[in-house]
Amino acid sequence: MSKKTITRILFGFISGLFFAIFMWALDHYNHEEFNILKFLFHFVAFGLFQGLVSGFYFMNNNKK
Fold first, then answer.
1. Distance CA 20, CA 12 (A)
2. pLDDT digits (tens, 9 = 90+) for 31-62
3. Domain coordinates of the chain in residue numbers?
4. What is the spatial distance between Cα 54 and Cα 50, in angstroms, rounded to a whole number?
5. Do residues 47 and 17 touch, judged by C-beta distance below 8 A?
6. What is the dihedral of CA 45, 64, 4, 56, to 10 degrees?
7. Mean pLDDT of the chain
8. pTM
9. What is the largest distance, in Å, between two alpha-carbon atoms of the chain?
10. Residue 64's pLDDT band (boundaries 50, 70, 90)?
């Protein structure tokens, strides 16, 4: 794997984890119980989205 691919995967993983933790904190503040499926969905969906967006951004940024 190239360094760019590893960076995209790592960025998606970290941003997805932070987003999922933030959403859990909001649920905790609103006195909702913890739902592992909701947490995993936020983690995977946002992480994938951020990984793809950052990948396209870095690819277009390197062409210029």
1. 12
2. 999 999 999 999 999 999 998 888 777 667 76
3. 3-63
4. 6
5. yes
6. 10
7. 88
8. 0.80
9. 48
10. low
CA distance 54 to 64: 16
**Tokens 């790592």, located at residue:** 10
Quote the tokens at residue 26: 């909001």
The amino acid occupying position 13 is F
Cα 1 to Cα 7, 9, 15, 21: the distances in Å are 10, 11, 21, 28
Sequence letter at residue 56? F
Q: Which two tokens stand for residue 55?
A: 């990948």
Residue 59, both tokens: 């690819």
C-alpha 29/C-alpha 9 separation (Å) is: 30
Q: Where do the H-state alpha helices sit in the chain? A: 3-29, 36-63
State mean pLDDT over 16-45. Answer: 95
Contacts 24+ apart (CB under 8 A), 60-63: none
